[in-house]
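Ticket #280: bound-state structure for 6-hydroxymethylpterin-diphosphate.
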Amino acid sequence: MQLTLPRRRPMRLDRPVLVGVLNVTPDSFSDGGAYEATGAAVEQARAMIEAGADVIDVGGESTRPGAERVTIEEQLRRVLPTIEELAERFDVPISIDTTRSAVAAAALDAGASILNDVSAGQDDEQMLALAAERGSPIVLMHMQGEPATMQQRPTYGDVVSEVRGFLLERAAAAMDAGVPKGQIVLDPGIGFGKTLEHNLTLLANLPTLVETGHPVLLGTSRKRFLGTLSGMEDPTRRDVATAATTALGVAAGVQLFRVHDVLPNRHAADVAFAIESHRR
Ligand code: HH2
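RESOLUTION: The complex was predicted; output attached.
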């Protein structure tokens, strides 16, 4: 399995792909404020690449529970200088974490090559057409509600089939807009309008997403449910807990993992993958 980046560059998915998180925001839940200056962002990207990151995901709008929206202009001000620098210095694909097509288009012009849309093209319908036009892979994520209120009372009948059904519906919309199936990555949206129970049920049933034939991305890194399970209140102390989910994700056939601390997740993914490749 592989993704095709703009200008027909292939990105292989036959071993776990680690997507390093680079939030150039003042308020992200675990690294807010740390990489607002372009120099600090570039150094963090370098460290993540040295630790084994395959992609760097740049975002200028926090989607943590309760977060307020950030304007297009402000997102552009935050992300463009960093994307330009990363594209010039490093040879790893850059993804842009935004739900706004104007931000995504400018990010692609500045050197990004993958779109990461936590609204799965619902916030801005032009996102799907943009992915088709530019030949960019696009990550479509499930969210119930919106960040400002999503954790107030998430409710599902059957969380696994509802999330899967939603993602397949959005993938169909992307295909209608001209994006090839193999370029559409599905993401269950761990922590986005979900209780601990919902997150655990989704993580225990990842093969239902893998079986769709789409590449799958998992974003558990440092999230609240891992704090609940590990007793770690400080998000930056949830990396071991995150690595446990990465190993289980690899065993379930997930290809991409969006993480803050790359090294422990690289190790967990590589060990899990080595074991999986011996399964009879
Ligand atoms: N999670 C976050 C942001 N973007 N994108 C995808 N595809 N999947 C995710 O699970 C996901 C995501 C939230 O984490 P983070 O970026 O660390 O925090 P914040 O939204 O506060 O910037």
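RESOLUTION NOTES: The chain is about 40% helix and 15% strand.
TICKET STATUS: resolved
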